[in-house]
Records
---
Amino acid sequence: MNLMATILLNVLIAFLLGSILFGLQRKIMARIQMRPGPPIIQHLLHTLKFFVKESSFPRTAAMPFYVAIASMLCAIWVSAVIVGPVAQGSLLLFFGIYALHKIVEHNAGSSSGSPYGKLSCVRAVFSAAAEVPLFAVLIIIYLQTNTMVISDIISYQAANGPLLFTIPLAAVMFFVLILSKAPYSPFAITKGKDIISGYETEHFGVLRGYLMISESIAWYMLLWVFLTVFFGPLGVMGYLVGMLALSVLTAFINATTPILNPNHSIMVQVTFAFIGIFGSILLMLAF
Amino acid sequence: MIYNQENCIQKENQKIIFKSTKGDEMEKLTIASYLMFIISVLGIFYALIYNPASWIVYGISIVLIPLFILSLGLITMARSKKDEQDERTNEPFIGY
């Protein structure tokens, strides 16, 4: 298939599946709270609804940066789709994409001029502490497989079995990272309800829909990377089942835990990182 | 907003109000949206039909796919009626 067509198809799948998985999370969380909850396609419907709503652009917004930063979020996660499913490139690029995501959260909050956005902007800087476990995961994967390239990691796992069993603590650290990106998670300090919607508070209509599209793609990509790096070569059904399982698990955790305050959120993530790093090194030395 | 003679009307009782410029801004936004849409569609079709080198396709995808989505949203988003535009910009003073 033509490369551009492959990219377009993968972006479309990432958006649709990511939206459905977000909707499924909301449904599960509602059921745990003994509510019926919205339909599973609600997140997708909301995205499309916001996309065609009348939009307002705040007077305090730093134009055109305020619009450009929403575009940047979409651009980085389209890059992730290219690095991941399309080209199966280097995990280091994925680390860079995740770092840029933090920068976008920061700047989306500050560009709107809203005090809630500014609080979220500061919390986005704090939450860069989540980069520590991600960096640790990449190093541990490199130490185990001698490569950072996704296609080579898949080949390594085809020969030696899933990395989930050889470096389980790295998988736990990556899972904590995924959890930090899930809605209503204990680590979702940039979009906590105590600051309304954080950096998204003053993004209305089209821009809110645009941000939701990017977040759906981001969710799909985080799950895809986790499954590919820790489970190895999977078919379409394998990815579907894996993504469903991860989304259900995060929904259970999010429904039963409170959102931590920013300091506690960072300390917990950094603690997980330290346990993961030292534990993984000990395991690698022992075996 | 910057206070200057172009966008302020000073009334007899010295109250300053902003001239509504929302109509002009929306027109500029519509023109810009259509331009972005045409450029992004042309770029994506070029990559689909001519299948250039990988790095060109990656560049087109990273820049033009987000631009396409943004421009589509700006074109399809609902707009206020002309007689309601003033309401959106000039908020009534409701006291503190």
Note: Residues 99 and 131 of chain A are 7 Å apart (CA to CA).
---
Amino acid sequence: MAGLLLAWSAAACASSGTAPGAGSADKGPKSIDTYRKEGIKVAVADAPPYSQILADGKVTGASPEILRAVLKRLGIEIKDGVVTTYDAMIPGLAAQRWDVVAAGMVIKESRCKQVLFSEPDIVSTMAFGVPAGNPRNIKSIADGVANKDLKIAVLPGTFEEGVLKKAGVTAGQLVTVNDPRSGLEAVKAKRADAYFYTTLSLRQLVKDDKSFDVTEPPKDSPVTGAGVAFRTTDTELLKAYNEELNKFKATTEYVELMKKFGFDPEAVKGVTTAEMCKTAG
Amino acid sequence: MTWDNEFAMSVLPELLQGLVVTVKLTLCGISIALIVGLIAAVLRFQKIPVLAPVLGFYVQFMRGTPLLIQAYVAFFVLPQYGITLSPFVTGVIVIGLNYSAYTAEVYRAGIEGVPTGQWEAVAALGLGARRKWLRIILPQAVRTMVPVLGNYFLQMFKDSAILSAITVVELLAAAMKVGGNSFRYLEPLTLAGLLFMIISFPASLLIRRLERRFATTH
Amino acid sequence: MGAVVEYAPLLLRGLGITLLVTVLSSILVVVVAFVTGLARLSRHWFVHWPATVIVEIFRGTSLVIQIFWFFYALPLFGINLVPLAAAVLTLGLNGGCYAGEIVRGVIKSRPKGQTEVAIALGMGPWLRMRRVLIPQSIPAMLPPFGNVMIDLLKNTSLLSLVTIADLTFRAQWARSKTGETVAIFLTLLVIYFALSWLLGLFTKWLERRFSLSRRSVARPRRLQPVMGGE
């Protein structure tokens, strides 16, 4: 009865879904050919300039655009984009909710055990978003460690969260927020004194808002090399992707693309995934 | 990639902490729902010209909009008008007010359910308002109200998980947090579900017993 | 208010998903409600036990957890439903288990005499259910079913937490892009309120339509002669 009911309703629902047959029941890896035929589904964050989905449904931002350009060389198209939270990106990849994550996800040790990272495609910085004039004078991560009554807003599951925790910022000081804009609103609502996030996203968020400042990237924050993340079974895809990515990074197209979104195209030089995977956290 | 028992055991302590928050959240929410609901019901019962329709609308509105959106409004909109409360306090107030709309209706139905004969008898005996309410009407109304309220509070207990969306670190949020840190959702989510059941199942049996006990006396 | 106008087409598309999910899952709710409700009334333990277990699981745990579980954990067992199907399934099963208790409760509360008369007429258990008990029970089921449907509508907002682009998801997204938090959330409240109000009216209409009026008594359907049920 239980199984029957479940199976029956599953069948009823599958037939009523909009995109039948997406994601097969077997857990084996999809071949590159399958991706060529079916397209690829990408998870992004709503965090320009790294990644975002526009009002017309187009997936864009530096990370998805690099993904798109490289996949195009492999004959694969981005079929669908989903905005999700950082903490759900890797579990969703395992659950086959999407095939690749292109959200400027920073390469680090714990994540390297769960997903396959491409070679780094964006190397960038983090900073604090603070009320105008920086009343609490927050300039470095060490300030957060030294001053235990400082509250810092951070997105759960992000590299930033790991950096703060590892530096010794206590759990009680961290104010978790569920999406990038909520971090800013947490500071405005005085739930937090500062918001630790990527420099460029912060600048984009506060662009017209005079009540916020974005600090210089703290000197004590580590290098953040980001790449796109594939399922652990997609080794074939990863290999082909990296080959094309390395070629792509040498082109002027890559340089233009990075400049367009405000990133430094030089920063990525010499940074490797193998090295970044040693970053603890 | 299936069940990892060792991992499940390792996340249990953090989930139990989340469960404690969930229970606290529910108990505080129940208190608000009981009190605000009573005020709303009594005021509506007085049939005060302007207030009665306003309260009627309040009940309709709270019942007609999703708890999630109410929580978002309280959490994101109120601070823009200078009211900033912690996620927990915001959560308690929102869920308490949300369920006050339901408890108000329960009170109303309970009081109206007391047979007319009883009201007439009270009038005939010339009993004062205090004795009328405390001795005659409420004791009878409570009998029918208790199981219904119980069911709503059980529902509130389960609904409190919605408040994870405004970063209250209750059971579901705790599960998502450990899940996010370890990149595994299966064990934390399943355990969170089990923990909800461990409390809600015995509670529902208790409520059913109350239902039966009170039902037979009529 | 500018953001609401600017993003109106997207919000409308989100509204479309909200309505689609509501309609599809409400169909599933009705089916699951009758299956579990009737199964739990069965005299056979192998029918009512599994139904009871399912109902207790869905009623005992939180819907949000079920949504997350169906979305992120179920695929690990090789059951890979598209997001919309997973959404409809979760809402349908959850709502159906609540509604199933309504079905069971109402049918159980029918006067004993009805069953006795039906037995005396030689009707089997299934025919009794189909021709006597269920038709009589529908008017009593409609108001609580209406509440289940309104809950269902409200619960679709939870799907925004698992990347389903419903009204709430689109609104969150518009808010993220524009920062016009107040206007967008207040618009959401109004839309959901209007929808549940309409759903309430629809239920009222159904109640009138299916009330045990004299008209329907005046045109009784003739029973076919039966031998021990169908």
Note: The CA atoms of residues 88 and 151 of chain C lie 14 Å apart.
